[in-house]
Amino acid sequence: MPIALLSRHIARAVGGTNLGPRFLTLGKTQLSHTHERKSHLMKKRIVAAVGVFATLAAALTGCSGGGTASASSCTNTIVQDGAPQVTVWAWYPAFQDVVDQFNNTHTDVQVCWSNAGQGLDEYSKFSTAIQAKTGAPDVIMLENEVLPTFTAQNALEDLTSYGANDVKTNYTAGAWKDVSSGSGVYAIPVDAGPVGFLYRKDIFDKYGITVPKTWDEYAEDAQKLKDAGFSGVIGNYQTNGTAFNVALFAQAGAELYSFDSSSPTTVGIDVDNAATVKVLSFWNDLIQKGLVSADDSNTSDWTTKMVSGGYASYIVASWGSGYLQGASGADEDAVWQAAPLPQWDAKNPVQVNQGGSSFAVTTQAKDKALSAEVAKEIFGTQDAWKIGIEKGALFPTYGPILNSTYFAEREDPFFSNQQTNKEVFIPAAQAYTGYTFLPFQTYAYDQQTQAFSAVAKGTKSPTQALTDLQDTLVNYAKQQGFTVK
Amino acid sequence: MTSTIVSASSADTSNSKPRRQRRLVGDRRRQRWGWAFVGPFAIVFIGLLIIPLVYAFFLSIQTTTIATGTSFTWLKNYAQAFADPIFLQGMLRVVEYSAVMIPAQLVVAIAAALVLDNLTNWFSKFARVMIFVPYAIPVVIGSLMWGFLYSPTMGPATSIFGLFGLSAPDFLSQDSIFGSLVNIVTWQWSGYYMIIVYAALRSIDTDIYEAARIDGATNFQISMRIKLPMISSSMVMIIVFALIGTLQFFTEPTVLRNVAQSAIPPDYTPNMYANVLAFSYNQFNYSSTIAFALGVIVFIFSYLFLFLTRKQNGLK
Description:
Largest sheet of chain B: 2 strands, antiparallel
Number of domains of chain B: 2
Number of strands of chain B: 2
Strand content of chain A: 5-15%
CATH class of the largest domain in chain B: Mainly Alpha
Number of strands of chain A: 12
Radius of gyration of chain B: 26 Å
Low-confidence stretches of chain B: 1-14
Radius of gyration of chain A: 29 Å
Helix content of chain A: 40-55%
Distance between the termini of chain A: 51 Å
Shape of chain B: flat
CATH class of the largest domain in chain A: Alpha Beta
Strand order of the largest sheet of chain B: 1-2
Oligomer: heterodimer
C-alpha cells in the first residue's frame, strides 16, 4: 500500500519521528478514560457532531443538485411571473437586451437565460447533461458545425414537427442547409460568418499594391510586399483555424464531409482530394517562401501582430472586425477596408462562410412546442436584430433584416464608413450554399490542426498530411461504429 | 486504530471469565465510538472517492459509440488503450518529462537547502521565503505569467536578446515547448521541495557535524558525506511526489496551450487526453479507461520506485 507507506514516510521525513505508534498510544489511553467516566457527556457531543455533519452533508448535496433549479437561476428578470418559462443557454454579446425585448413583448412565454460558457465550455456542459439525462436547457445556442455531433446523440429535436419549415423562407439557402440534415431541421439559424478580405489600405497604398481578386494575384502581391521591404507579411495562414480551413477548402470546391441524420450511422469523409491538395499546397508554398506566416490564431501574439502591422490583410468572416476593434496596441494610423475574398476562378466566384450559430431545442425540453416557438421568435423580429447588429455586431441570417436597406447601408466607422455589408458581406452570405459537418467535428478539427501544423513546420508535405488525415478520420469513424461511405 | 486497541485489551484480560465478558461489552461499546469517530470521514471518503472510482471503472468496461449506443465490452477498452498510439505517445512524453524535470527540481531544491542550512544570517530567512514564493502562486496563474514571458511580441526575451544583436528563440515553437514546460514546473515546485529538504536537514543532530569537524571534515564534505545521506529518505519522498505529479502532468500544458496550440496538441499528456476524450469527443467510457490505465501505471511506477529505494527510504 503505497499510500500507507507514503504517510509513514512523510512523518519520518518531515518530523524525523514516526508519529504513528505514539498517536495510537495516546488514543488508547484517552479512549479508556473517557469511556469509564464521561460516556453520557460524550453521547451528547456525538449527537451534536452528527447533527453538524448532517447539515454539512445536506449543504454538499444541495450544491451538487443545483443544476436542476432553473427558475431561480435566470440572468435576466422575468417580466410575466405567471407565464411558463423556457430556459436558454447562449453566449451572444448583448443578448441580455434581446431577452428583455422578447420577454417584454410576450405574455404567453418567458425566456430564462443563462450563459453557460462560450463554445467548447458550453458544449462540454451540454454533453455532461446529455450523459446525466438531466440538466440541459430547453433551448441551446450551438455553432452549426457541432449540430451533427448532438443530433447523432439524439440530443436535439427535429423541429419540422414544430413548424420549422414555416419560417424557412425567412433564411438564406446556405443558412438553412447548415441547420438541416436530410429532411430534418435541427435548429433555427441566428447569425452567419460570410468571409471577406480585410486589408490595411495604408500599407497596400504605401507599397503600391492593389487588392487581389484571385489567389494568384494574392501570391504576386505577397511577393511584391516582400520585395518592397515591408517588415511584415501579407497575411497569416492559421494552421489552427478550424472553420477557416474548411472555408478555404470549400471555396476550391471540396465537400469534405457528408452526414444525414436519417441514416445516422453513416458518414462520408473526403479530405484528401484535388481541391484540398491545391489549397494546402498554395499556402504551403507561400509559407516555405516566407511570404506568409503560419502563426497560431487567437493567441495574444497573433492579435498584436494583426493590429500592429505584422500582417497586411486578414481573411475572416464579418465578425473579424469586432476582434480587431477590441484589441489593444493597434497602429494609430491603421486604415482597414474590406473587399470580397480572392477567388480561384474570377469568372465563377465561390463565396464561403466561417462560423455561424443557431438555436436548437433539446430533447430534454419540458415543453417542446413552446421551446420551438422561442427558438423561432427570439431572433425572429427586426427589433431583436437591431439590438443584435448594433450592440452585438452579429451578422443576420434572418431575411427581412438581411435584405433591408437599413442593414445594407450601415456604415462601419472602423472601415472609414465603408458600407461593408453591401459591398462584401451581404453578397457573400447570399451566395453561400451551406456545408455539412461530421458528428465528431471537434475531433476532426483537432486532427486537422495537427496535420496542418506539421505541414507549416515542414515535417510533412501537403499531400502526405492530407492522406494521413483522411486515414486518421476514417479509422476514428470506424472505431466509433460508423459506416464510412 | 480500533483493532489495535481491541487486541491489546483482550490480550491482557484473558485470564478471568466474568471480567472478560464485561470487558468485551466495553470493547463493543468502544468500537461503536470508534466507528462514530471514523464515520464522518468514512462517509466523505466513500461518497466522494470510492463510489466515483467504482462508477468510473463501471464506465470503463462499457463502450458507447455515437453510432451504436452502449454495450458491455469488459476489458476491450483497456486492450485498446494499451495499443492506442496517442496514449502510449503521451505516456512516453510524461516519462521523458519525469527524466528531465525530477532531477532538475531535486538539484535546485537540495542545492538551495544546503546553502540555506549553512547560513544563519537574515539573508537566509529572506532567501528561504523568496525561493518558496513561486509555490504560493497558483499553478494556473504561474503558467499564464510564463505564457506572457515566453511571448515573442510581449515577452522580455526579444528585447533582451536584441541588446546583443541576437534574435530571441521562439519558446512556444514545437521544438522548444519541452524546455519551456520543464522551466515552468521547476520554477514552481523547487521551492516547495527545498522546504522539505531544509526541514529534514534541521532535524539532524548537530553533534554529528561537530564530530565530523573534529575528524577534519570541511563544510563541503559535511554536506556531501553527512547531510545528504542522512536526508535520503526525504529525497525519496520528493521523488515520489514529483513522479506522481509529472505522470499526471496537466495544468501547465493546458494553460500554455492557449498560446501555443500547434505545439501542444489537445492530447499532449495522458491526463489531457482523458479530459479531451470526455469533454470534447463525448467518449466518457474510453476516457474513464484512459484515466484508470493512467492510475494503474502511476501506482506501478510509485510502487516500483519505493521498492527499489527501500534501503534509502527506511521502509524495509
